[in-house]
Design goal:
Elements: H1 6-22, E1 36-40, E2 45-52, E3 59-64, E4 67-72, E5 76-81, E6 89-96, E7 101-107, E8 111-116, E9 119-124, E10 128-132
Antiparallel strand pairs: 1-2, 1-10, 2-8, 3-4, 3-7, 5-6, 5-10, 6-7, 8-9
């Protein structure tokens, strides 16, 4: 039967912890980004990378009752329009990434832009029927 002293056991534990610290960490490959899907009122669908609003404020303006709310694009999963344009606003449902849903009138007098497989791409928001925002 083997007898191991406490000092030997502590030494072995220190040696193993040092060896574990020297092991290389496995680096996972980056997640492949997926494009945004934009469907126009004509029924055409586009896959668009780097979807954004020109300018510095990357948010959409929504009117609910009398209150105006700015919703950052980074928080939006998708937008579905439910009615026609009236006074630069259009009824819409916005589904948020965290699971919430907002209904109101979305300001649509601006363009959205990005990059498609053909190069630079843009469209007025008033001509869009639905937007599924991608991961890029």
């Amino acid at each position: 039967m083997y007898r191991i002293s406490i000092k030997s056991l502590i030494f072995l534990m220190l040696l193993f912890s040092w060896l574990i610290g020297c092991a290389k960490e496995v680096v996972l490959p980056p997640v492949e980004p997926w494009p945004s899907k934009v469907v126009t009122s004509d029924g055409m669908g586009y896959f668009v990378y780097n979807l954004r609003i020109p300018g510095t404020k990357q948010a959409v303006k929504m009117r609910e009752g009398g209150a105006i709310t700015w919703i950052p694009l980074a928080d939006i999963a998708n937008i579905r329009f439910t009615g026609p344009v009236c006074d630069q606003y259009r009824p819409a449902r916005i589904f948020l990434l965290r699971g919430g849903r907002l209904e109101g009138e979305l300001f649509v007098d601006f363009i959205i832009e990005g990059t498609s497989d053909q190069g630079y791409w843009n469209i007025p928001m008033s001509k869009v029927e639905a937007v599924d925002i991608g991961s890029d």
